[in-house]
Amino acid sequence: xxxRSHKMHSNQTISKDARPKPEQEEDLxxxxxxxxxxxxxxxxxxxxxxxxxDMHDSADMDGRKRAYGSRVTRRSMKVRLLNVxxxxxxxINMFFYSTCFWIQTGVLPYLTRSLNLDxxxxxxxxxxxxxxxxxxxxxxxRFADLYGGRVALSCAFVSAAVMYxxxxxxxxxxxxxxxxxPSLFLHAYHASQMIIVDATDPSKRAAALGRISxxxxxxxxxxxxxxxxxxxxxxxxxxxxxxxxxxxxxVAIVLKFIPANTKDQSRVTSGKHVNEESKSSEGVxxxxxxxxxxxxxxxxxxxxxYMLISGxxxxxxxxxxxxxxxxxxxxTSDQTGFLLSITGVISMLVQGIGIGILTKRFSDxxxxxxxxxxxxxxxxxxxxxxxxxxLVCVLILMTCGQSVIxxxxxxxxxxxxxxxxxxxxxxxxxxxxxxxxxxxPTIGAYLLEQFGITSFGIVGVVVYTLLLLxxxx
Length: 473
Prior knowledge:
This protein is mostly helical. The chain contains 19 helices and no strands.
């Protein structure tokens, strides 16, 4: 809310004695333009708080005006940074991002097959994508801290648009591989997490981050359906171009509704405040800055290690889940898709609703231990799976545990650093996840071929038993 200078009208209800002098009416907080009647009405409660004696004391009036201006400034900061509308815009844009990403993901295997890429080449393509994401995660996080959430999120959507557009225009396998290069900054989920961290209180952070996953999950359900319809009626290239157009729309939404600076400076201590000189000297590619964050932030290395290890069994199993359902349980492609949809819906409900309920009733350490126990039980049951019904029960337990522990660790990781460095720390967390995703398919294929599905259960039991016994203080 911006107040501007104005003349007090004769038909106002404020008494003549209580009415301030014209020079005392100048209450410029932003510009000197004239105010509307709405501004006059908004000022009434403030003006009537002063009694006649205070109005005649100019020094006291000046003090009140300065205090009032400070309150308005703080309120404006709150509106810009903590208003739910900004958070809602992030959720909506995350839905658009997920929808567009899964439109192109759903048609990618068919598009590559039409361009004569075999299964091995497709595997190389996926490995290349995860490697680029691994490199880009920390760089993008540092970039977001230096230039703000709006610039970072815009850059992520521009990268998505270029990636999808290049894929749609590809006429050879070389063009498909080139389309993966812009994914270096394809981190809209990362940027959205940073803005949510900036715009929410630490006590509500885990629930807010969980709702991002809810938005992403909705797009993950709808995206493949839209992509399949477009591909069947037009072509796979057309579906990629639709994803490109959706990403361009997201850029416009970001530039219109997201503030230039989402970091609340009132929460930045003087010792952790990053000035412009230090920003320019450290730069986006500052390895020393990332190392200093890891070594000087209490608990940062612990949570990154925990995130890396706790996600390993899940990534191993998920990377081979489609192969397991096809070869071990003889499910068709649509049955496997239905099974994956069930786990996706459960993940959305847990992250979007369940985490908020849990964080209000239990401490972070209690929730973390409970998630580990649930995952330990699910992988123990995986060792004895004999039919598809048992597998479904295991997947439900596994999804619940992994959804909670992943969101909680991300929230805890951001609390180890100042608000000026949350993007960099989130980038390091995403790098750990990308590292596991890069090596999981190779290790998972070896385990499945040599030891069968039971091997995944044994790996999970060992990992989560060790994590359960690890001190968390």
